C-alpha cells in the first residue's frame, strides 16, 4: 500500500471522529501558539529595550556610583559621585561634548488642591542635548538659574496635565516639598523608558535640588545620583570612557577597586540583550513544555484509539495488511494531527503576537525561526509520540484482535 | 492435481510446562480445489485454531502447511500478509465491517492493500456486491444494512481479490434462520463457481449444506470425510 492510500485512510478515520481529533489537536495547537507568542513577546521585549537604549544616541555614556561588585554586595546604592566630578569631566575630558549630572528623588508636588507624587530631577541645561529632551512650551532653566539655585521648574507633560488640566501652567507657582517653584516650561512627551514614565517628572536646577530638597554633601562635594555624558563622536567613546575613568580614579583616590562604573550604550545594549535573551529562552522553555504535554496528549489518544480499534486492526491484517501497513497508517494519523495542530497553533500564535504588538509597547515580531521551530517540533512530536501506539497496533495479534468482544 | 491445503503433522501448543495447552495434536488434512468443507467439533476441540493456522493468522508450533503448494510456515509477516490478501478470503461471525466506510469502500479495502488502481477497485467491488445481491446498496454504511446484508458485504469483500480459498468462521452465528439460508445459498453458489470453501460451524443444518465434514476432537481430526447424512450419528456419539 502506498503513502497516498495510507494518508487517505488516515484522513477518513480522523474525520469520522471529528471531536476526538479536534481535542487531540488542541494540545498541539496550544503548545504551538504559546511557543510562537512567547518567543514573539520575548523578542519584542528585547527589541523594545534595545530601541530604548538606541534612542539615547550612540555616544551616550552613563557614570553610575559604585562598582558592579559593590552594587551586588549591598542594597544600599553607594553615593560616590558628585557635582564636582561632573564639572571636572566637563572641563578636563576633551573627548566629552556635554555632561549632565542628575540628582533625583520622588517628591510630593502640589498646585492649588491637586497633588502628584512625581520624580523630581535636579540637573543642568546640558541635560537637554545629552538625553535628547526638548521643551514644548516656555523654556528650560539656564546655567544662570543653576548658579543662583533658582526655584524654577520645567514640568513633564503628564505632571502638567495632572496639575493644570489643560490650563496654561507657565508662570504659575507649584510646591515641591513645601517649597514654591515657578513653572517656566513644559517638556515634550518622551514616553516611557524601560517602563518608567519619563513624563511624570519635574526638572529643577541641580543646585536647588541639592540645597533645598535632598542630597548630602560628602567630603568630595555635592552628591548626585548619576551622570550622563556624550562623547564628541562615536569614535571617541572608548577614549572618553578611559579618560573619565582615569579622572575619577584620581579624584576619588582609588587604589584598588573603582567606586563607579561607566557604561556605554553598547554595554547597556549587551546587558539588555542578555537579560531579555534569557527571558525569551525561559518563555520558550515554558511554552515548549506545553508543546511536549500536547505530544503526550496525542500519544494518549492514539493508545486509546488502538485499543478501541482492535477489531479494525485485526480485520485489516486478515485481509492483507502487513505490520508495516498498520504502523504507517497509525503514524500518519499522529502526524496529521500534530501537523494540522501545528499549523492552526501557528496561526493563533501569530495572531497573538500581532495583538501583543498592537496593544503594548513591546515590539512583538513574528519570528520565522519560531514558526519553523514550532511546526517542525510539533511534526517531530507527532512522529515521536505516534511511534509507540502505532507499534502497539502493528504488533497486535490478528486472532486476538478479531476475537476480542 | 495440487491440493489447496495440505496440513502435515501440525502441532500447536500454547503456554509451557504445567499450563501447556495442546490446541492441535498431529493434525493431517488435505483439502482439494473445489471442495466445500465444514469443520465441526465441540468447543475446545481445536477447530478454530486449525482455522487460524489455515488462514495464516497463526503459525503452527511444528508441522508443515502447504497452501496452494507453498510452504507458508517459513514466510515472513509481509509475505503472509500478501498471501492473506491474494489467496485467502475471510468471513467472520461478527462481519467486521469498518463502520466509517460504505459497503463499496469496505469491499474495496483488500484491493487497497493489493495496490489495485482506484477505478478497477471500484469496478470490481461493485461487481462483487452485485454477485451477492447488493447492487442497490453500494453506498450504504454498515449501520444502514441488516445483519444478513452486512454478512453479504463481508462475503463480497472476501471474494473480491479472487482467492483460491474462502474461509468462514461461524458465518451464520449472528444471523436468524432466514438470512442464514440466504447466506448459505451464496456460499453454495460460490463453491459451484469453483471457489474452495472451508467453514467452521456448530450448526448441523449449516454443515449439512457442505459436501464434506471434518470432525475435530481434542486437537485431532477424528473423521475427515464425514458425509453430511451421517452427521446425526456423529452428534449422538459426541
Polypeptide structure, described:
- The complex is a heterodimer of chains A (405) and B (238).
- With 405 residues, chain A is an alpha+beta fold.
- In chain A, α2 packs antiparallel against α13 and α10 packs parallel to α13.
- Chain A has 2 domains: 183 residues, no CATH class; 180 residues, no CATH class.
- Chain B is an alpha/beta fold and 238 residues long.
- In chain B, 36% of the residues lie in helices and 26% in strands.
- Chain B is built from 8 helices and 10 strands.
- A 6-stranded mixed β-sheet of chain B has the order 6-7-8-3-9-10, with helices on both faces. In chain B, strands 2-1-4-5 form a 4-stranded antiparallel β-sheet, covered by helices on one side.
- The longest helix of chain B is centred in the last third of the chain and has 16 residues.
- Chain B is globular and about 50 Å long.
- Chain B starts with a strand and ends with a helix.
- The model of chain B has no long low-confidence stretch (mean pLDDT 89).
- Chains A and B meet through α1, α11, α12 and α14 of A and α2 and α3 of B.
Amino acid at each position: 500500500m502506498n503513502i497516498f492510500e495510507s494518508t487517505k485512510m488516515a484522513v477518513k478515520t480522523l474525520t469520522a471522529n471529528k471531536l476526538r481529533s479536534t481535542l487531540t489537536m488542541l494540545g498541539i495547537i496550544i503548545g504551538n501558539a504559546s511557543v510562537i507568542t512567547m518567543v514573539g513577546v520575548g523578542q519584542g521585549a528585547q527589541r523594545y529595550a534595545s530601541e530604548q537604549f538606541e534612542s539615547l544616541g550612540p555616544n551616550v555614556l552613563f557614570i553610575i556610583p559604585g562598582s558592579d561588585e559593590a552594587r551586588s554586595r549591598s542594597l544600599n546604592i553607594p553615593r560616590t559621585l558628585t557635582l564636582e566630578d561632573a564639572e571636572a569631566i566637563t572641563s578636563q575630558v576633551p573627548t566629552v561634548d556635554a555632561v549632565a549630572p542628575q540628582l533625583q528623588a520622588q517628591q510630593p508636588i502640589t498646585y492649588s488642591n491637586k497633588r502628584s507624587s512625581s520624580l523630581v530631577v535636579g540637573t543642568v541645561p546640558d541635560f537637554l542635548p545629552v538625553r535628547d529632551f526638548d521643551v514644548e512650551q516656555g523654556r528650560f532653566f539656564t546655567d544662570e538659574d543653576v548658579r543662583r539655585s533658582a526655584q524654577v521648574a520645567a514640568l513633564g507633560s503628564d505632571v502638567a496635565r495632572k496639575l493644570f488640566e489643560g490650563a496654561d501652567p507657565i508662570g504659575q507657582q507649584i510646591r515641591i516639598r513645601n517649597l514654591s517653584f515657578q513653572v517656566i516650561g513644559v517638556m515634550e512627551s518622551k514616553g516611557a523608558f524601560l517602563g518608567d514614565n519619563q513624563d511624570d517628572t519635574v526638572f529643577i536646577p541641580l543646585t536647588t535640588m541639592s540645597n533645598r530638597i535632598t542630597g548630602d554633601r560628602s567630603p568630595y562635594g555635592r552628591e548626585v545620583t548619576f551622570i550622563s555624558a556624550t562623547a564628541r563622536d562615536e569614535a571617541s567613546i572608548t577614549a572618553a570612557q578611559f579618560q573619565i575613568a582615569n579622572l575619577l580614579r584620581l579624584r576619588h583616590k582609588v587604589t584598588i577597586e573603582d567606586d563607579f562604573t561607566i557604561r556605554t550604550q553598547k554595554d547597556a545594549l549587551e546587558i539588555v540583550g542578555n537579560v531579555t535573551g534569557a527571558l525569551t529562552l525561559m518563555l520558550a522553555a515554558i511554552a515548549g513544555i506545553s508543546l511536549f504535554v500536547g505530544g503526550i496528549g496525542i500519544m494518549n489518544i492514539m493508545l486509546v484509539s488502538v485499543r478501541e480499534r482492535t477489531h479494525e486492526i485485526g480485520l485489516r491484517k486478515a485481509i492483507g495488511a502487513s505490520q508495516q501497513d498498520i504502523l504507517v497508517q497509525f503514524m500518519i494519523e499522529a502526524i496529521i494531527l500534530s501537523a494540522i495542530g501545528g499549523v492552526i497553533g501557528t496561526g493563533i500564535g501569530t495572531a497573538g503576537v500581532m495583538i501583543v504588538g498592537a496593544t503594548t509597547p513591546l515590539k512583538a515580531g513574528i519570528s520565522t525561526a519560531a514558526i519553523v521551530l514550532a511546526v517542525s517540533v510539533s511534526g517531530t512530536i507527532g512522529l515521536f509520540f505516534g511511534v509507540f501506539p502505532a507499534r502497539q497496533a502493528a504488533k497486535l495479534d490478528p486472532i486476538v484482535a478479531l476475537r476480542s468482544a | 492435481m495440487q491440493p489447496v491445503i495440505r496440513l502435515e503433522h501440525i502441532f500447536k501448543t500454547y503456554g509451557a510446562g504445567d499450563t501447556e495447552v495442546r490446541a492441535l495434536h498431529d493434525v493431517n488434512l488435505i483439502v482439494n480445489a473445489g471442495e466445500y468443507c465444514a469443520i465441526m467439533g465441540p468447543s475446545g476441540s481445536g477447530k478454530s485454531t486449525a482455522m487460524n493456522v489455515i488462514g495464516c493468522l497463526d503459525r503452527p508450533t511444528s508441522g508443515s502447511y502447504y497452501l496452494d503448494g507453498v510452504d507458508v510456515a517459513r514466510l515472513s509477516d509481509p509475505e503472509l500478509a500478501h498471501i492473506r490478501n491474494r489467496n485467502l478470503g475471510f468471513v467472520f461471525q461478527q462481519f467486521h465491517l469498518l463502520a466509517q466506510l460504505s459497503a463499496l469502500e469496505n469491499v474495496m479495502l483488500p484491493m487497497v492493500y493489493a495496490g489495485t488502481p482506484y477505478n478497477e477497485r471500484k469496478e470490481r467491488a461493485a461487481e462483487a456486491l452485485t454477485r451477492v445481491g447488493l447492487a442497490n446498496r453500494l453506498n450504504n454504511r454498515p449501520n444502514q444494512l441488516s445483519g444478513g446484508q452486512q454478512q453479504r458485504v463481508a462475503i463480497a469483500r472476501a471474494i473480491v481479490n479472487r482467492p483460491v480459498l474462502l474461509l468462514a468462521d461461524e458465518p451464520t452465528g449472528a444471523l436468524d434462520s432466514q438470512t442464514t439460508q440466504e447466506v448459505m445459498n451464496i456460499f453454495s453458489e460460490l463453491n459451484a463457481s469453483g471457489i474452495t470453501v472451508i467453514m467452521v460451524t456448530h450448526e448441523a443444518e449449516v454443515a449439512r449444506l457442505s459436501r464434506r465434514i471434518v470432525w475435530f476432537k481434542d486437537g485431532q481430526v477424528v473423521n475427515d470425510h464425514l458425509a453430511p447424512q451421517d452427521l446425526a450419528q456423529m452428534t449422538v456419539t459426541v
